[in-house]
Amino acid sequence: MDLIVFDLDGTLLNSASEISPFTKETLLRLADKNIAYTVATGRTMLSAQNIIHGHGFNLPHIYNNGVIVWDPQQQKLKIENKLSNQEASFIVDVSHKHSITPFVNTVDNANHHSVYHSEVRHEIEHSLIENYFSRTEASLLPISSLPIDCQITNISMIAKCDVIDAVQHKINQHSNLISYSGIALEGNEFKWIDIHHRLANKGDAVTLLKNELAAKNVICFGDSDNDLSMFSHADECYAPENAKTQIKAIATSVIGHHHKDGIAHFLRERFSL
Questions:
Q1: In terms of DSSP bridges, do strands 177-184 and 152-160 run parallel, antiparallel, or are they unpaired?
Q2: pLDDT score of 131
Q3: What is the pTM for the complete model shown?
């Protein structure tokens, strides 16, 4: 069987961070042909599940770049390579030294999400809470109440680009941590950063899923640094026109821009949908 694995932002999603009507119809056609597909994203479950809900993503989902695997059929959660308390403390200290707020993402075995954060200092952080976190089912709690035995999946922040660049430089010096950043939806002057354990990656999570499903051919789509491991494990890998140079360099082929439903157009031709 073929197993198709989609990155979301910059790949399957359009410029509005949505699954377009054309792509939605394409996913329905894949399902009608019993072609297996799922998602491997750097997003948390909180931010991704509302986007993919109702679009036939019935196989296990890969979140947080491989930290979390969620099986929607069995309602089972698997967490690998969590952040230790020491690693989390290091990240929080770095954020405070740069005068920005860390958002510590945790999840328990009942799939309840809690986000712990310190004092909110900037308007962009207030906006993130009001427009995103407060609209999810996550509990928002002070970082002082962070339990010592909680399962920390990742820590995220948002700030001016130069501040995030400085934070990322410091974080990537830590042997156990890796970070990814990008331009925020709130404007080109802001960046987000997401930090998790270095051992977590999409590639290993996709390989485990491939073995569980006994898939013969894994076809991956992605556009950024966190897709490199997935591409290296895939039998075929495709980068949209908007992808980073290093992704395009190792891709099987470069296809259409994500703003123009490039992945959906490719799939319709590839599988005669």
A1: unpaired
A2: 85
A3: 0.94
